[in-house]
Design brief:
The structure holds two protein chains of two kinds.
Chain A lengths: L1 E7 L10 H10 L4 E8 L15 E4 L7 H14 L4 E3 L6 H6 L1 H6 L9 H4 L7 H8 L6 E4 L2 H11 L3 E5 L4 E4 L2 H15 L3 E5 L4 E10 L4 E12 L5 E7 L2 H14 L2 E11 L4 E8 L7 H5 L4 H9 L15 E3 L9 H10 L3
Parallel strand pairs in A: 1-2, 1-4, 2-3
Antiparallel strand pairs in A: 5-8, 6-7, 6-8, 9-10, 9-12, 10-11, 11-14, 12-13
Chain B lengths: L2 H4 L1 E2 L4 E3 L6 E3 L2 H11 L4 H11 L4 H17 L4
Antiparallel strand pairs in B: 1-2, 2-3
The chains are: A alpha+beta, B mainly alpha.
Chain lengths: ~350, ~80
């Protein structure tokens, strides 16, 4: 089966999008042939020029441009080049694609996304409830919406604290003054509520996985970050098997009938034998190729599920495999840049 | 959670813990003790094997084994 698969997040930059790793994963599938259609927001996203991974690229408008601009652009790609599936990899794309998923499907473009209700579970004000339901913990936290509540929450939790937006941004505060400053910054940019959370110690461990929407796993892999960049992006990592964390991920898929890719970010306190849930991302992380590299091709399994191909039952993966990200450079012709700027496609 | 039994140990003394992702290096004596601990041997049995295989008095061997197990305990491996 030949499939034209749209992949966004092909910005392989210092804050990398997940797209290139997913494109590589799709190319490695043997039971279908993926033509990767890069969906770029900027003519300088490196993936546009990586023609050994991304076969053809299109500039697309920001999702905030709405149905007429964003969805119609996908229809244009469908008509002019072909587009059987959209693998949405950036948070901002999900609401519009979830909303119009049925319409897209009727027009021959499949997606495999969480429902809007599932998507909302990623809010940090829901973490506590989810963690409890899947058998792990969250650091003690308070949801606040005013200075007064903020200060009361700090008194209750004790410094230092993490000050977090419901969806974006998280800063560590060692004093009340710092906490107030972070609170103001996040409110100005992202609004209320703000979450004040106790700083817990432990190892940063993550799970990438996907659910089929019926309570079954399409594959999952657990890792520990060994080296991160200043932006907190993983640069070196290692596969691990922390059963408590993996069981929680399985519970997450089962209890919420999760559909599509996800990442659970956890802090594991080995002394207390506690796994704290820090964040749920309703999409692939930038390092998802790590899973493919250890034999668990989650992206390919999503495609298999979406197109009714036999799904591979990935039962296990080896612990102790190393992930090393690296930067590279290339030299190409200006015509390629001109073409994508003027025509909107490579 | 028995971390010791799950450790991956190679002949050069590189030790990987698949539960935590931590890695350690041990010398030949440490490797010898670790392998025997993994096999379920008691400290007493390990001391006598050390005396048999290395030029070491039982007192020194016993002290080394106790120290080494304490070290493992500090890393919560036993």
């Amino acid at each position: 089966m030949e499939l034209k698969i749209g992949v966004s997040g092909i910005n392989a930059v210092d804050n990398p999008g997940p797209g290139i790793g997913i494109a590589k994963s799709l190319k490695e599938a043997k039971d279908f042939k993926a033509t990767v259609v890069g969906l770029a927001y900027d003519a300088m996203e490196p993936g546009v020029y990586m023609d050994w991974v991304v076969d053809k690229s299109f500039l697309i408008p920001y999702p905030s441009a709405g149905h007429d601009a964003f969805i119609n652009r996908l229809y244009y790609i469908k008509e002019s080049f072909g587009l059987d599936f959209v693998m949405a990899n950036l948070d901002a794309e999900l609401p519009i694609l979830i909303r119009y998923a049925d319409e897209l499907e009727r027009n021959g473009i499949k997606t495999f996304l969480p429902t809007m209700e599932q998507f909302k579970l990623r809010g940090k004000d829901r973490l506590d409830e989810i963690a409890r339901n899947i058998g792990i913990d969250t650091p003690p936290s308070e949801v606040v919406a005013s200075y007064d509540e903020l200060l009361k929450a700090i008194d209750k939790i004790g410094l230092p604290v993490m000050v977090k937006g419901a969806f974006y941004k998280a800063y560590r505060a060692y004093t009340k003054q710092e906490a107030v400053s972070h609170f103001n910054k996040i409110v100005a940019q992202w609004g209320y509520p703000i979450i004040v959370q106790k700083v817990v110690s432990g190892e940063e461990m993550n799970v990438v996985g996907a659910g089929d929407g019926e309570g079954n796993s399409l594959g999952m892999v657990g890792i520990k970050k060994m080296w991160i960049t200043e932006l907190g992006k993983i640069w070196t990592g290692i596969t691990i098997k922390n059963e408590k964390m993996l069981t929680a991920a399985r519970n997450f898929i089962e209890k919420y009938n999760w559909r599509g890719a996800f990442e659970l970010e956890c802090i594991v306190d080995l002394k207390e034998d506690k796994v704290y849930l820090i964040e749920i991302n309703p999409r692939f992380p930038a390092w998802s190729y790590f899973a493919t590299g250890v034999g668990v091709n989650i992206a390919a399994n999503i495609i298999r599920k979406a197109f009714g191909l036999p799904v591979v039952d990935y039962k296990d993966y080896p612990a102790g495999k190393l992930y090393v990200r690296y930067t590279d450079d290339m030299v190409t012709d200006l015509e390629r840049f001109q073409k994508i700027i003027t025509k909107g496609e490579s | 959670m028995d971390r010791l039994s799950q450790l991956a140990i190679n002949d050069e003394g590189f030790v990987f813990d698949p539960i935590t992702g931590e890695s350690f290096t041990v010398n030949q004596t440490g490797l010898f003790i670790l392998k025997l601990l993994k096999e379920g041997k008691t400290p007493e049995e390990i001391v006598s094997q050390l005396v048999e295989n290395f030029e070491v008095s039982p007192e020194t061997a016993e002290r080394d084994v106790v120290d080494f197990i304490e070290k493992l305990r500090s890393y919560r491996l036993v």
